[in-house]
Amino acid sequence: MAEKITLRETDYSQWYIDLVRSAKLADYSDVRGCMIIRPNGYAIWEKMQAALDAMFKATGHVNAYFPLFIPESFIKKEAEHIEGFAPECAVVTHGGGEQLAENLYVRPTSETIIWSSYKKWIQSYRDLPILINQWANVVRWEMRTRLFLRTTEFLWQEGHTAHATSTEAQEEVLRMINVYKTFAEEYMALPVIMGRKTESEKFAGAVETWCIEAMMQDKKALQAGTSHNLGQNFAKAFDCRFQSKEGALEYVWATSWGVSTRLIGALIMAHSDDRGLVLPPKLATRQVVIIPILKGDISAVIEKARSIAAELNQKGIAAFVDDSDQNSPGWKFAEYELQGIPVRLELGPRDIQSSTCIAARRDTGEKSKLQLDRSLADQINSLLESIQTNLFNRALSFREEHTLEVSSYSEFKANIDNGFLVAHWDGTDETEAKIKEETKATIRVMPADPEMVLRYGMDQPGTCIYSGKPSSRKVIFAKAY
Amino acid sequence: MAEKITLRETDYSQWYIDLVRSAKLADYSDVRGCMIIRPNGYAIWEKMQAALDAMFKATGHVNAYFPLFIPESFIKKEAEHIEGFAPECAVVTHGGGEQLAENLYVRPTSETIIWSSYKKWIQSYRDLPILINQWANVVRWEMRTRLFLRTTEFLWQEGHTAHATSTEAQEEVLRMINVYKTFAEEYMALPVIMGRKTESEKFAGAVETWCIEAMMQDKKALQAGTSHNLGQNFAKAFDCRFQSKEGALEYVWATSWGVSTRLIGALIMAHSDDRGLVLPPKLATRQVVIIPILKGDISAVIEKARSIAAELNQKGIAAFVDDSDQNSPGWKFAEYELQGIPVRLELGPRDIQSSTCIAARRDTGEKSKLQLDRSLADQINSLLESIQTNLFNRALSFREEHTLEVSSYSEFKANIDNGFLVAHWDGTDETEAKIKEETKATIRVMPADPEMVLRYGMDQPGTCIYSGKPSSRKVIFAKAY
Fold first, then answer.
1. Taking the CB of the first residue and of the last residue of chain B, which one, N or C, has fewer CB atoms within 10 A?
2. What is the distance in angstroms between the Cα of A31 and the nearest Cα belonging to chain B?
């Protein structure tokens, strides 16, 4: 089994790294800043992909694939975009043994290479909308890396859509940020705050960036997904115009939106504990481990364990048996807790006699007795649902306990390490920059969730906690990953 | 609709390009040698991925992800490997605005980066086997490219396994080439010949390469998948040893195997015709298009078409309706034939009255009358199965008609443009190279399929058609993609 994991309260950062490596989720590679996503970690990504992909298709999107390489001249076409991304790029200068005539950038994001195609595909309003998503790897040169959260190469999906009107594009932006919110809350059991980014925090090349923000167990914020209204910026950069129904020649409206393997980091940091990974059942490839307690008639116990697993599998529950005799039951308990299997069934000869078994749930450690009868799958499904709900509720309570409204800068500074701060802001870049410089906290989101807006009177005017100038709304500040 | 497609008999290469572009499967990008896989093409890849991934998992494999970049020093560790791949590599020399201390190669294949990890993961026989697959993009600088078949960047899967014994590794090599054969034949409806490559055609760094070879409609061969026995070559290059059960320190045995988006090219070239794409139903995301013939009571026809589609969808058949009034039924017939939808249902007011409809199958163009009753899904399923079977049988007959045994070099030269030639070969690189130089034909495969071996007496000794020296077996020669 694994090395010991540092306790969260001792060193949260070290706990995270220890957990990721002990549970064999990921490893640093010999390539600077790049990670290896190991099978246990990749299995989580596959579950995320399957759920998201189905949600994208249900909202009318199709998948495609665009080149990894972007010619230097393309990436330079949108002024803000190149300013934001060029310093982070990996550059191919040689190919096939020769120096290239034009350098190729390894994609940090694909707006430019995709819009150079859309320009060719779009002539008339009949060609719109284009609703394409791409699953791909991207590269952004990072100086300080952290497994899943910030690595030079990562995996993601990027949606890139083209529309005839600004209104349609804005609807798409909001549709997709809401898809992300639903995914985060229903699959990841991760409560998120949805809203807009400030000017200084938006995507390089966007008119507006929408996001979902989550709170980790160390009370820091983590941006879990973004959806950008790109206006006509990329259409203008690539001269992409269409003939409207009315016959006019107009620039196309664009959106882009993405989530990445960073979500795996968010999942870990939101739910896991000092014993290891805690996985929401909906994202667990293996939901139930059955551990035979091998005393007396070993073969009968193993046989029963296998028949239970087969029955559960047949009913759609991903169960498996660990009947290896190399390790003790205690070792196995610890190992599968480390790996985050949501439910453990302990099965010994006496359990078989009494037609019961012990179920231990990973989230609370609580044990219960289950009946080994036809209703077993139902009993386990309730347990899995209860774990999924409990994880969400626990994370939501935690966030609510650590969200505080402040009305002065001294109050702000006294509490900024304690979670999300709701505060009035005068809407200027200067104030935002000053606060960041002095406290390291940034404006994470201008919330749009109706419940959040209502609860905190987010849209009420007031006075900026920093400048004392009039403020038209409250925003959420926090330190962030 | 699309531009006109060149006829196959006029210019097979141009037919292929025209088809790929008209059916919107792929496009050249502005990046030299790189393609854009458009939604229609990517949908085929998604179907292939789903089927293959399930087969890999059923044989005990798990997915993971390793870095895109490979340090120059790694790729140089295996002598044959670097010799084979270095000239084809794209090289990153700058990252984050600075020149790198060590150049990074964009992976052309991942043996080296993966074995540098396996070295860390493997200490004892208990850590074996490792059965990992990766879905990824790779880059090989190509001078002459062709959409899907040969592009600078392509998508693929690469399995990389580690074993305690040579026997186990060899079993894995054969298991996976047989998985590929099953996939090609059952899903792609593509008959393939399975066997070994010669020394000069094997993978750079392998001890043995196994492959499946298919015949295209122009009678050329196409390599559709490979499985390599890497022996201990990479373990030695990366000093990867394990403690055996007996306590000895031994080098690990390795395999790797892969198929790529090239399979989409094979699929097109094997089955499609002058009207466009022909897709085997098992790889069609859209299996049935329903085209309402809009005369008389339009709304009743549309309503019926939609209810039929809903019923078929519910029964697992991917059906959709095109009820747009922008295009005529004739235009739609041609468009969906171009796109390769396996079955077209034509539905007019009189059909509804008589509770029947016309079904046209894409492979033969044949029309039949179906009953619009409860058995409709069954009728369509039979049709889809019949199409799947017919495509396989048609391709198999074609291959058999164009496979000829030859016993002299003059006979060989007279027939080399006419398909696969079964011939005796003396087993030397020299003879192989001479024949290639003089005829452009290569040894595609030393068949191992029992039926093939038996039919042609592949394992019988004889006389080399070129050198007149003794030959221990017959092999298959052909011109190839």
1. N
2. 7
